[in-house]
Recover the amino acids of this structure.
């Protein structure tokens, strides 16, 4: 017998959005003079604290660039932050379809995402309407790391999420693309789906959990 799901919790990056645009990422690497093969490591080195909200964009990009001898002023940090958001906020229309269908079916919907202040601004601004649909409006709660001062997979962020979900952990379904985040959700008692772009999310929700 399939578990009865009441609340569905979505990650944002690489779930609701497509994977990062590598051409834009290469532009950022070129601006900073960072070899492409080293850029991911530099970019992610302090990303957790940027997403937690403990670093602003100027400090974050300065720390990324410092080992390569590049100085980052406010103008350059703003340019890099805009490119960074451009690289992430391409909305996955198939996932938005699923979100809208779940909302219409009466499920409680939450977003739980590691996201910095610039991401929050972009998401609630130019990215919130995709193909004429305000997908943000479908969510009952949006929980972002920069607002909470916590990041996945820290246990406390899942505890807060479960309070907002208003359902027992076993009746909450968490969808994320990172195995570590999935493992933490399972430890908190949630049902989970490890998201992979190209796999039909709606079909998985129906077959595994009887949604729709």
């Amino acid at each position: 017998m399939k578990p009865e799901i009441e609340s569905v919790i979505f990650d944002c990056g690489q779930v609701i959005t497509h994977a990062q645009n590598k051409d834009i990422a290469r532009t950022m690497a070129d601006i900073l003079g960072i070899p492409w093969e080293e850029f991911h490591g530099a970019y992610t080195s302090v990303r957790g604290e940027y997403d937690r909200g403990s670093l602003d964009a100027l400090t974050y990009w300065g720390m990324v660039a410092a080992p390569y001898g590049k100085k980052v002023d406010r103008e350059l940090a703003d340019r890099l932050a805009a490119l960074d958001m451009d690289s992430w906020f391409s909305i996955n229309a198939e996932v938005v379809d699923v979100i809208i269908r779940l909302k219409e079916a009466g499920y409680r919907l939450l977003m739980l995402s590691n996201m910095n202040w610039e991401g929050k601004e972009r998401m609630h601004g130019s990215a919130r309407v995709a193909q004429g649909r305000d997908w943000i409006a479908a969510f009952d709660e949006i929980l972002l790391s920069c607002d909470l001062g916590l990041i996945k997979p820290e246990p406390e962020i899942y505890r807060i999420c479960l309070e907002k979900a208003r359902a027992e952990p076993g009746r909450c379904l968490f969808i994320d693309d990172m195995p570590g985040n999935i493992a933490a959700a399972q430890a908190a008692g949630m049902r989970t789906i490890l998201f992979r772009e190209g796999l039909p999310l709606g079909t998985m929700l129906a077959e595994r959990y009887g949604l729709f």
